[in-house]
Amino acid sequence: MSQAEPLRVGVVGLGAMGAEHVLALSEHVPGAQVVAVHDVDAHRAGEVAASVGARVAGSAEGLVADADVDAVVVASPDRTHAPLTLACLATGKPVLCEKPLGVSVAETAQVVAAEEAAGRRLVTVGFMRRFDPGYLELREAVLGGRVGEPVLVHCVHRNASPHPDATTEGVVGNSMVHELDILPWLTGLPVTGIEVRSPRSEGLREPQLAVVELGRVLATVEVSLSVRYGYDVRCEVVGTEGAVSLRPPARLDVARDGRAGVVVAADFRERFAEAYRAELAAWVAAAGRGGATGASAEDGHRATVVAAAGIESLSSGRRVAVPPG
């Protein structure tokens, strides 16, 4: 592909995340052109395609194989992530796969092995927090030693309401997995153990609280799916010489009906809009050179390994050691 030509992108899955990616690629990422989309809902696929002048692919596999598609975004249901990423690797196409990379450790290990066999990096996993300005500042402060050696990390991850398809295991594997990726990235230390508990023993077991061990550092992770008030993500790192907290993006302060305060983001798309755009821009630039950037297949695999240990802990009620990478 000539540097003067746009990267021709195909997007599989047009739910909230996939549709947002199509919009961002079309309106905010120079050098990209969405040329094909696919969704199991043909009507929705037609609407999204028409909005950006793309065509509708008859199947996800057909979109991946299309010679007129240079690179692929996978934003379809979790169970399709690994198979479609493997299909992209088989065709030699760069792929941005939304988290999680797969639904099992065996699946994600297969993706890592397939990429290694391909001989070059092609997989980017959609851990967009790595591109968020606040998280980038936080990481720079921690790894730069501004608060001494990190000893404790506190993470909060709250959603206003759960997805209709939410499961107890998915609280760890689909939601908490963001923190399970970001903790090693923030501290430079691998996860060595995890214990996950919930105050509920039946139905959808949330909220959940995890204690994550990263060698000499301990982290707490709260994941709540139904706090009602909005989408709220926080992080604080306590070091031997001070503490540093994630600075939230600027929010409107509203005074009305006898109350005043900062408006909380409605969902992840609003809170991390800048991060998603930065992630896509970096991915398009790397894919245009035939490569990848951001979280790797190995990063996605490690997050799945830790999530599997967390799910085991929640089920058994015990701490579970995480095998080294």
TrEMBL record:
SUPFAM superfamilies: Glyceraldehyde-3-phosphate dehydrogenase-like, C-terminal domain, NAD(P)-binding Rossmann-fold domains. Residues 135-244 form the GFO/IDH/MocA-like oxidoreductase domain. It comes from Oceanitalea stevensii. Keywords: NAD, Oxidoreductase. This is Gfo/Idh/MocA family oxidoreductase. Residues 7-127 form the Gfo/Idh/MocA-like oxidoreductase N-terminal domain. Belongs to the Gfo/Idh/MocA family. Signal peptide: none annotated. The keyword Zinc-finger does not apply. It comes from the Bacteria. It holds the Pfam family GFO_IDH_MocA.
